[in-house]
Amino acid sequence: MTRKFTKPFTQQEPLPEAAIERAVEIMRTGRLHRYNVVDGEEAEASVLEREFAAWQGSRYCLACSSGGAAIQIALRAAGVKPGDRVLANAYTLAPVPGAMFAVGAEPVLIEIDNDWHTDLGDLAAKAAASGARFLLLSHMRGHIADMDAITTLCERFGLTMIEDCAHTMGARWKGIRSGNHGRVACFSAQTYKHVNAGEGGLLSTDDAELAARAIVHSGSYMLYGRHGAAPDEEAFRRVRLDSANLSSRMDNLRAAILRPQLATIGDNIVRWNTRYQILEQGLRKASGLRVPERHQHEAYVGSSIQFQAEALSADVLPAFVAACGERGVEIKWFGDDEPRAFTSRYDSWRYLGDLPDLPRTRAVLSKTCDLRIPLTFSEDDCRDIAAIIGEVMAGFA
Q: In terms of domains, do 246 and 297 share one?
């Protein structure tokens, strides 16, 4: 009998009981808006900001409506103006180019290497040629590039680094938390990320003026003093009248849902990585597939796994993906000419204007397959998934 996997790849674990109880308490008060508090009360969003800043090891934190909103606010607060060139790795998801479009920036897309990292040579060449002053670095699907080398390049070319850590909350490079290498970092609390509020974002930084601008941009009005991890009054007085209100606040309900999850993220990282490593070992046994080695300095969070179907051509890969789907294994393919669901390739972002051909990125993505690893999967589930992919692959060999 041909084995078939029957669990959904999009089902998350239930929210912690503490999150549900606190959310109900807040709903009973009716005070969902982060600035709607009574005397002596600190808003849940403010408490989350304090707790996340302490956990991340940053001085300041802002809770936003989404990860994409956090990126847009970070770009503006870092000083990106319409027409400014922003370097960005071409392998990412649509909210990243969307944020650049929203601020009127001109993207300069960087090639990726065979392991989905930013190509350092292409980054250096385009930094020199473009005159860009900003780098929006996406740690796409949790793959962290050589942060020592990237930091050195930023110093060499005078680049302000904005980190998109939607897939690396809790990850580290040489012991330093992802997000603490650049001037500002952005995190996502969307359902398929490492904490689940349905939607939401967090911004962290050690830069007082950037934090003040970001808080006013988020829609604080003149209530910025009610933020739990904010700079002092003087920082706000310098920027408050020159920073537009973008109405991108997180509400108290989502903050209540997130706080208990932040407390348990360390345990969940261990669980994700156990499942990732089982899949990794199983996929490496399959002929024709390649799972790149992770950097030894990279403490990753394996909430998804990517592999390259090296033995298959681009015209055969859709049939491979479909065959896996018929066996219950949902694979996303980043080489498709048409964007599907959450997956798109850089050349589908036509709203950015004329984009260059990036042959290396296109070649890598033409073989790139992607799997979510929800914690609703058991370790045995992961063994079954790897075995099914191997069996399907054998049929195409």
A: no
Instruction: Based on the fold, state whether residues 236 and 276 are members of the same structural domain.
Output: no
Coil vs helix vs strand at 67: helix
Burial class, 331, CB count within 10 angstroms (exposed 0-12 / middle 13-18 / buried 19+)? buried
Amino acid of residue 232: D
Q: What percent of the chain shows pLDDT beyond 70? A: 100
Q: Residue 173: which CATH number?
A: 3.40.640.10
- Per the CB < 8 A criterion, the answer to whether 187 and 169 are in contact is yes
**Alpha-carbon span 54 to 46, nearest angstrom:** 13
Residue 387, in any domain of the structure: yes
Long-range contacts at 234-243 (CB < 8 A, ≥ 24 apart) = 235/208, 235/209, 235/211, 236/212, 238/209, 238/212, 239/209, 239/212, 239/213, 240/212, 240/216, 243/76, 243/77, 243/212, 243/213, 243/216, 243/217
> Residue 11 domain-assigned?
no
Full-model pTM: 0.96
Angle, helices 147-157 vs 120-130, to 10°: value is 10
Interatomic CA distance for residues 97 and 68, integer angstroms:
9
**What pLDDT, in 10s, does the model give residues 225-272?**
999 999 999 999 999 999 999 999 999 999 999 999 999 999 999 999
d(CA 212, CA 200) in angstroms, rounded, equals 20
142 has a pLDDT exceeding 90: yes
Q: How many domains does the chain have?
A: 2
**Pick the residue with more confidence: 115 or 295?**
115
- Nearest of 106, 111, 112, 110 to residue 86 by alpha carbon: 106
Alpha helix ranges (H) inside the chain: 17-29, 44-56, 67-78, 95-102, 120-130, 147-157, 208-218, 233-239, 252-284, 317-326, 359-365, 379-396
Is the pLDDT at 397 greater than 80, yes or no?
A: no
Indicate whether 111 belongs to any domain: yes
Q: Which residues 6+ apart lie within 8 Å of 9 measured at CB?
A: 330, 371, 372, 374
Q: Can you tell me whether residue 74 is helix, strand or coil?
A: helix
**Domain CATH code at residue 326:** 3.90.1150.10
- Of the CA atoms within 13 Å of residue 156, those in its CB half-sphere come to 13
